[in-house]
Fold each of these.
Amino acid sequence: MNQSENDVQEGETVPIHKWVVIQQGALKAAAKELGKMATVLGPLNKPKVYEDVKKALIAVEKASKKVPTGLTSAVNGGQIIDHIRAHLEDRVKQATERLGQDLGDAFKARGLAMRVLRREGPIEVRTPPLAIVIDRDKGKASLQFAKETLLQVPAECDAILAGYDEALKVLNTPFDPQVFHEHCYSAWQACRAATGAKSDRVEIVDFLPYLAIHRQKPAFLKDPRQKSFKDYTRAQFAWDVLRLRREKALVHKNRRLNLGVATGSSASKKSRVIFFEDEQGNGEFKLTVFFSKEDS
């Protein structure tokens, strides 16, 4: 029988039962160490951890400092941590080196063009009508319209393609240009009355909640509860205005819907303004909403 130097003194004969006890102790020690390693891996076994690569790498480094030392089992804790770290570093590498080409090819296969707007910190590309902003450090991509994030997905080609489709689905709600124009006009009137506005212009941030109410379904209007309320976002408003322009319906019943340009310090206060853009991303920040009379 093989015996380690720590088990017996040189030349000593160990009875079989004592040898079994020694092996049993070694297995119990190994089981204890494996239990510690399983606990160390606990914070790393949830999908949400890997949504943000930067935070995931921090979690991996914290776990690596807790790996039990002297682990002799075939299941090596350090190797597991190294494998997780390598996976995350490869995701960062993909975002840096391969994602742009793969994404461009995938959109091209759909008959869509992708244009690079910014190559550094973070990368930004545009496939009309959306912008895609890729954060390589976090391993995330944001699908945007009007400089507003519609949703975030992992910075991976398939996830971005699926996110692109989902973002367009979110924006493309049923739309009647004349009804939308009427809703805007009613919201503008309500906002002016509520704020005591002395001029025709009201700020978009004051106007938007009133428009959101008009865009609700009958179920909410009959019984206004949170569960039946449908979000109406800044990006959705910008998208609906774009749809109104496409339909050449800015004028309805001799009333023109106007958006006042944000200038000076107001343009720097992003919470007060919305960036109204076309499919290619050309546009400007607007601060106010107002209506004017226009002959047919």
Amino acid sequence: MFYFERFFDEFKKEIFKNRSRKMNIVDGILLTLTIILGLAALVLFELKSLKFINIRVTLFVIILLLLAVAFYTILMIKISKENKKIDFFKLHKENVTDRIIELLKCKQYDFYNVNKINWLIDCCNKKLSEKSDFNKSISALKTLNSWFLPLLTLALGIVVQKFSDEELIYYIAIIIIGFAILCMFSIMLTPVIEYFNCPNKNCLEYLLGELEFIKTDLSNK
């Protein structure tokens, strides 16, 4: 896998991380102003609600929000007009596909043939199928949960029998709220878990798709 690792690292640093169109200075200023004005309006509103300031800030909040919306609208219209002038197919071909082909042809690798591209595809699939130590620990926790949850349910069933109707409704409401909070945390933590499980997943999948296309195109020549 040594040659693949070298090739993948170069692809990641030189192509994958630079594949997107960079935000220009004007777009950055408009976005920054939108965020600053929106946050300023929120801070003023909160300070007024907490009675830290006594002046009438409602008008200022409305003005700041309107300015934030105006800057954001200008930014979206500007980006939309610019996108209509861009040939994204050509841009992707020049910034990604052609550069990968150049990397495949590089004397250091000499990977530009169907057999070697197939080998690179197999390497990508192996990397994607590998389970990290983090993933193994998560699997172990899931196994423990499969034993723990039935016991917890049984214990709750015994305890609930002693509750009055009001207490039962109260604890059910707490359980529902707790479950909703856990669901929110799980949604927020899923990308983090996926990153620890396979830090290069997106990059590997991206390279895999490009290699499949290049191999098909090369086979038809």
Amino acid sequence: MIKQDYLIRMILEIITKIAEAILGKKKIKPQSWVEYDALTRQILGLTTEELRTTSAEEILSVYEKDLDRWGKTELAAMTLLKIAEETEDDILLKQKFRQDGLKLLKCVQSDSGTFSLQRTAIISLLESEDIK
């Protein structure tokens, strides 16, 4: 139980930092990104490179039976969104990461039974940017 509570707190802390960067249109410092990547890999069991090549559907199926399913799904979504923000050279790849991240966030918002103003703000921001 203590391990699961700690894991949930770590997930929320990482999500909050990435959300602040996305909402504030700030770049994460390379050293901080290395730290986030290490924690993300430890929590999700996937490296950033593996996330880049995994579809939203595959991510949902990977955590389908996990006790921390929604927290891990949200962390994967936020990581994909941050990767999209950092991708400048390939517009199609950037859009794929944004769409997968948005899809995962919407699944968490609708199916997890939890509500987050931060999550809602990010979903709204992404949807309004897609309209432009």
